[in-house]
Design brief:
mainly beta; Methylamine Dehydrogenase, Chain H; five-stranded antiparallel beta sheet; 48% strand; globular
Amino acid sequence: MPTSVSVVKDLVYVLDAANDGKITGFSINRSDRLVHISDSTRSLGLSNPANPNFLQSPAQVAVTPDARAVIVATKSNGVLDVFTLDRHGSPSATPIPTQSAGAVPFALSFDKVGRLLVGEASGGESSYRVQRDGELTTISAHVANGQAALCWSVIAKGFIYVANAGSNTITGYSENGRGQLALLNSSGVTATTDAGPVDLAATLNGRFIYQLATGAGAIDEFKVNDDGSLTRIGAITGLTPDNGTGYEGIAAS
């Protein structure tokens, strides 16, 4: 039950959400083929069934930008598991667990200096410093946005944007030089979206973000302004709306 993949340089980690949950590592060789990293599979010990409840399953895997650790968010367990990686990309035997600063850690991303940003489905965003030994030090703890069911996050022009599936909104956050977070809008609403926003993607230059609104069967398009505000520039419609088989996952280049 693979649910998430993270790629940093030639290192790839995949999250399997079934049963106990596990991660497995791969490297990308010179022929652009995936090669399994020997002894890289590690269990998360979640004791779930083969098809776990959505909130009981792990959410996302993320390799740190320096490829020294791989992190997993475990939703209702409220834990961020950090496996340190050796120079070959092999993980430590067991993870270093950190209790999430906010309930239901879900979306993982990293700022330009490698600080960890965690979007919590309980409606907030936290920031952490990743220590060399794998310990996480909290910088900002659960900056609440007043919105419901935060699902995904993306960074564009140095701002953090999160999709709120239960509110049909996007919340923007700013980050100062110390990694402290603040809402761009006191209401927590930087933009409204079509129904059921579940995933976000940003272009590499950070000028545009795209919001997959599964409930409406649409992709909302936004321009990222220099002050972090979003201007809606259009939408692609006609996708299969969410009835248990709607589209999930989006990428941009």
